[in-house]
Design a protein that fits this description.
Blueprint lengths: L10 E4 L8 E8 L4 E4 L4 E6 L9 E6 L2 E2 L3 E4 L6 E2 L1 E5 L5 E5 L6
């Protein structure tokens, strides 16, 4: 399996779907399904039945996973979204870099 380009706590921009243009932080990365969960994006309403030990019941809103291909990483330095790549430093370590994109 290849290395994930998007990681937990990364800031991302949604580039397609009903939430296009929204920005959020990655909550969870589902590597096997190539999906991510982003705060405030793809909100769904679930019916939760009352059970002992569960605090919130009734209609509960939460985030659902979206496809990894529908998000772009936002460069923390410039604030612009772009594709990700890898750069090898002089000491041999690899780091992720954001290639400049046209979307913002």
């Amino acid at each position: 399996m290849s290395q994930t380009r998007i990681k937990k706590d990364d800031e991302v921009l949604v580039i397609s779907g009903k939430d296009k243009g929204k920005r959020g932080s990655v909550i969870k990365v589902l590597k096997t399904e190539n999906r991510v969960m982003v705060t405030g994006v793809n909100m769904v309403t679930r019916h939760v039945k009352a059970q002992p030990g569960i605090a919130q019941t009734g209609l509960v809103q939460g985030e659902a996973a979206i496809s990894l291909s529908n998000v772009m990483l936002i460069d923390p330095e410039t604030g612009a979204a772009g594709r990700t790549g890898q750069k090898v430093l002089e000491d041999g370590t690899k780091v992720r870099v954001v290639k400049s994109g046209k979307r913002s």
